Amino acid sequence: MEVITVTADADVFTCNAYLVLGDRTVLVDAGTMTGVEDVVAEHTDHLDAVVLTHQHSDHVGELDAVVDRFEPDVYAYADHPLRTHELEDGDDVVMGDESFEVVYTPGHADDHVSLVSGRSLFSGDVVVYNDGAYDDGSFGRTDMPGQSRERLISSLQTLLDRLPETVESMYAGHGDVFETERGGDTVRDVVERALGRAEERKPKYPEE
Questions:
Q1: What pLDDT, on the 0 to 100 scale, is given for residue 208?
Q2: Which residues of the chain have a pLDDT value below 50?
Q3: Where is the Metallo-beta-lactamase domain (predicted)?
Q4: Helix, strand, or coil (residue 177)
Q5: Per-residue pLDDT, 207
Q6: Nearest-5° angle of CA 6, CA 12, CA 14?
């Protein structure tokens, strides 16, 4: 399975939008980068589906443009005018060459889901490897209306419970892709570190 960050050259605030190539070509989140559909088209002339981890504006801003260009199925937990398939906790979704379990992970957003296979984790914003707060395991912010630190903590615990030991790659909504290296941190280590920091109940950012 090949994963390409199609928003890598963005000069605006956006999430990481990931193009997953393989038997089933899928875009995870759409981002806010104008022209993201053109970048997708550089790698494929067909897009089977878009899967949304959640519907914050930085994740869905260019969804209309992607759908207009490729007419893919759209998978989302919460209702959306372009949604064609509702995601529920425990569902299986094929992306690339792997089958991913949908894990409902609210806290950063009420409709947040993570996607877990035997080798890969698409974590959205519930957990990232590096951001402006921490550089080796961070959690999604919970200081905005509708967000909840307690629900996010519970979601990270759930994610750990359902995360296979074999997962080696984490594709988060922001920051760098994390790859397990021999003798180094694992994806589980990163999630556990993020959970521990979230459980301290301290503001993620000093201005919170």
A1: 53
A2: none
A3: 14-174
A4: coil
A5: 65
A6: 55
User: What Rg value do the Cα atoms of the chain yield, rounded?
Assistant: 16
**Side chain identity at residue 148, one-letter code:** S
| Token representation of residue 91 | 């569902």
DSSP letter string, 65-125: HHHHHH--EEEESS--TT--EE--TT-EEEEBTEEEEEEE--SS-TT-EEEE-SSEEEEET
Instruction: Give the β-pairing of 178-179 and 169-172.
Output: antiparallel
* Whether the Cβ atoms of residue 113 and residue 77 lie closer than 8 Å to each other: yes
Predicted local confidence at residue 170, as pLDDT: 98
* Domain 2-79+89-199 in this protein, CATH class: alpha beta
Quick one: which of 120, 95, 108, 116 has its CA closest to 159? Answer: 116
Q: What is the dihedral of CA 185, 51, 95, 160, to 10 degrees?
A: 30
Rounded to an integer, what distance in angstroms lies between the CA atom of residue 59 and that of residue 69?
A: 17
CA distances from 149 to 89, 124, 160, 179, 195 (A): 20, 16, 17, 27, 11
Is the pTM higher than 0.90? The answer reads yes
Q: Which two tokens stand for residue 57?
A: 């504006």
Centroid of chain to Cα 23:
20
Q: Name the burial class of residue 73, with classes exposed (0-12), middle (13-18) and buried (19+) by CB atoms within 10 angstroms of its CB.
A: middle
The contacts of residue 163 (CB under 8 Å, 6+ apart) are: 116, 121, 187, 188, 191
Q: Which two tokens stand for residue 31?
A: 């981002």
The whole-number pLDDT of residue 204 equals: 84
